Amino acid sequence: MLSKMNHRIYALPAVLFLLLSLIFISAGAFIQNDERAARISKAQSVAEQVKISLEVFSNERIKAVHNLMQNWPTFEPNQVDWFNAQALSLMGMQQGFSSLVFVDATGKIAWVTTPNTGIKTRIDNTLIGKPMEALGLNVSSLSEDLESTLLYSQEAEHHFIVVGRAISPQEPEHGYLIAGFDVQTILGVMLGELVGPQFNFQIHSDDATLFKSGEFADDGTIVSLAPFTFLERDFYLSMQSQLSPYNPGLLIILTGLLMSALVSYVLHKQLKGAVSLSLSQQRYLTASEASLDALLIYQPKDGDFSLVEANSYTRYLFRGACEALRSMTLAEQMRYLGLSHEFINTQNVYKDGVPYEAHIAIESTEISPEWIKVQVVKAGENIALTIRDVTERFRDQNDLKRSEEKYRRLVDGMHRHFVYTKTVEHNFIYVSAGIEKILGFSADDFCVNESRYVRQVPDETFQIRQTIARGEKPEPYIVHYQGKVGEPLALEFSDTPILDEEGRLVAVEGIARDVTKELALQEEVYFQANHDQLTGLFNRYAFDEKLREILNDTHRSNKQNASGKNVELAELEENHIGSRSGYNEVTFLNMPHAQHKQSVMCFIDMDRFKLVNDSCGHPAGDKLLKEISTIFRQYVNGQDLLARIGGDEFCIIFRHQSLDEVTKRLDKLLLAISNYRFVYDDKLFFVGASIGVIEINESTQSAEALIKAADNACYKAKHLGRNRYFVFHDNDSQMAIDDSENQVLHALHHALQNDGFELYSQAIMPLNVPNEDKAGHLQHYEILLRLNAREGGLISPGLFIPLAERHGLMNKVDLWVVDNTLKTLESNPAHIDNVGKVAINLSGITLGDEMALHKITQRMQSTSVPAEKICFEITETTAVTNLSAAKHFISTLRDLGCSFALDDFGAGMSSFTYLKHLDVDYVKIDGSFVRNIVHDPIDHATVTAINNIAHSMGKQTVAEFVVDNATAEVLRELKVDYGQGFALDKPKPLAHRVQWRVKLASA
């Protein structure tokens, strides 16, 4: 029965509504269709007018551009001025041009003409000199048709059409003509004149909307024309006549529908009133029984409330106590459940009508819930209670609270770490308490003012945020902050994007840690890996890396500048001749390119460093290196490179400086080193620096070749006298010298294998023996060595001895000299009887070679030549530099009967201290003091001192470089024992001396 009544309530009003609506809709539709046809016709007519106007405008401007190219002058002396005049005239006669551009035959923009309107345009004079591509159009030089493109200018916020063509495809040397049009300005002016506000329209091209007015209504009245050409681009025009605000058809329909609905509603209400009460009762019962809450209705009774009705869930909720509660009043029920205090709240609801709600903990064991939610409302003259079991919810909340407290204790207790949450815009909204331990700021302060504390963000910040925006986890990154007390701190963040179910970014969470100490340690490790621990300078590894970077930069720079080198500079480099003088005596093989600044590398080897190291120990050597490095620092600037690459070897690269500028600085540097005195344990040392200089330019092949060449130049500086520099140039002269050295070195190897040396000798004459006694005096001479050249002649020891020392061959040469001297003497026993001493020179390499000592000892033990006839000469410098080895060498051979002479005595200026420690028989006074003894009182005093001290120690003296009789007389006056020099005897082959003495004896 109830179903039939519900059917009538809705069916009868619906039928009435449909019937009335059909009548009104039919009338309105007829009127609507008539008006739609009129709107389409009006829009079609206006659209055609707009199309024709735009085509006419376009044809006129394109024709004007063609005319300008056809009239282009062939022999105009200044095409830019002609173009500018014609362009300004054309723009004055025909509006719409935003710019006219002349591009020369090379494709570069030569001139831009724009109307003086003050309107921003994409093409202006700032493009002059740039390639044609800067216009957004690349025109083919062979095309006879205009080419065009559609561009958008961010600055002007307009679309522009750029058209252009070669002025004459047959004569590309005339260049190109490019015209620009501000499309939106043109359309705004023309459409404003042709189309009124009663039309909606839109023009677009290449998927770009160029002009639009109003919003189209999708009602089938939009007119779209076929594409037409405007300024060499396809344009699409859509137009729609606006709907009148008073649409009669729609008005009739709406009015009719409203009236139909009103009539049907009145009928529906009348039918519905009859069954509303029964439906309400049924809904209440259904909802009550389906509810998950216990629903109880109470009516007032004698100041209390008695239960009237309860749903079925009540029996489940109060199972076990339901029967006992049923007969009780509300006050008794609450006392039974231990909730007496809640009865007052129930009475207040009944009095005031204000609903009451509470969550209550149940301590009674009579019912199962531990927590219930109670809601009390007034229902007419009754009250209604709803009770819900929320025990599980409260248990979950308590578990969650305990979990959160545990999580917070863990997070806040992390050392040097903290967790954080950021918004999509990367603003911090939560950080854990660990931030305060790190930076000193509270979590809330950091969230609000984080940007104020940032000192440096990563360079790749934009890429990091893009990665997060894609929902991907970026690599950890470091942000530098300033702590509360001003100290710099570095924090490493590890972000994790948080996405919703649709994959959209909603937050960023992560963990951060304090990496300040780690970064400091990394920097310290990097510094130690790249710097010399003693001097703090770059080490060899870092120097090699920096040198390769400099070479790469030099090669790139010279490639870029190669095309700009002018003929004048080339001629200057070819013909430049110059000389220089100053503190250093430097051999210049060829002048550098004076006008082209490059970099210059200086290879520095400390002179007499080993003397300090061996005589005073390594701490003294370390102290010397530190002080020398301090001197070097004073002559370099921030862009130069200073490194220690070996024990006593340094390198300086003067960046972006010419060779002349560098040599001036080296003059000052060497002067400072020569004035420097090293004092250690009351001992005074003079040191020097031999410097090899080489220019780093486009011809430099590699770092290895550069260092090798600089090392060679450094060696040449040592060979020239030390404490100076030698400039290496990679040219024909230098190559010739290198080839010559290679030839000498080859001859040296050949001589060692095939006995290619020749022994010479020079007498050491007694100075204080009367002439009548000299004939019977035993000979004393020094063995000299010559090297036979393959093409004939002899090579001076001044050439091959330094090469032998440099290439580690000197010990082999010494052994050859010892062996062949003994062989010569062994084969001439008669000559031995006339010999007092035969002096053989030994090098510093041999002096420190235990194997060489062993071979010389064996040879002396096996020879028939008496050991007392042999005197070994060692230089003062090598003896003092390797003092312990020298003492061992001397004592070993002296035990066999050999004697020793200390050669070049006085050159080191530390001689007297060590003379008493060296068990030598002869002291050979360095020739630099002897040669000028007649004229130089200082040399005279020096020789006197050396002679007297040597005699006081029981040693005999030999003066070198006796160049004339006057020198010999002075030496006799000073009581020097022996003299050696061209004034006394000239070098001659040993074989001749031996044979001459043999013949003299037989005669």
UniProtKB/TrEMBL annotation:
CDD domains the UniProt entry points to: EAL (cd01948), GGDEF (cd01949), PAS (cd00130)
Q: Name one Pfam family in it.
A: EAL
Which SMART domains does the UniProt record give? EAL (SM00052), GGDEF (SM00267)
Every copy of the GGDEF domain together lies at: 597-730
Domain PAC positions: 472-527
Q: Where is the EAL domain?
A: 741-1001
The record's annotation in NCBIfam families points to: GGDEF (TIGR00254), sensory_box (TIGR00229)
Q: What is this protein called?
A: Bifunctional diguanylate cyclase/phosphodiesterase
Traced from the root, the source organism's taxonomic lineage reads: Bacteria, Pseudomonadati, Pseudomonadota, Gammaproteobacteria, Alteromonadales
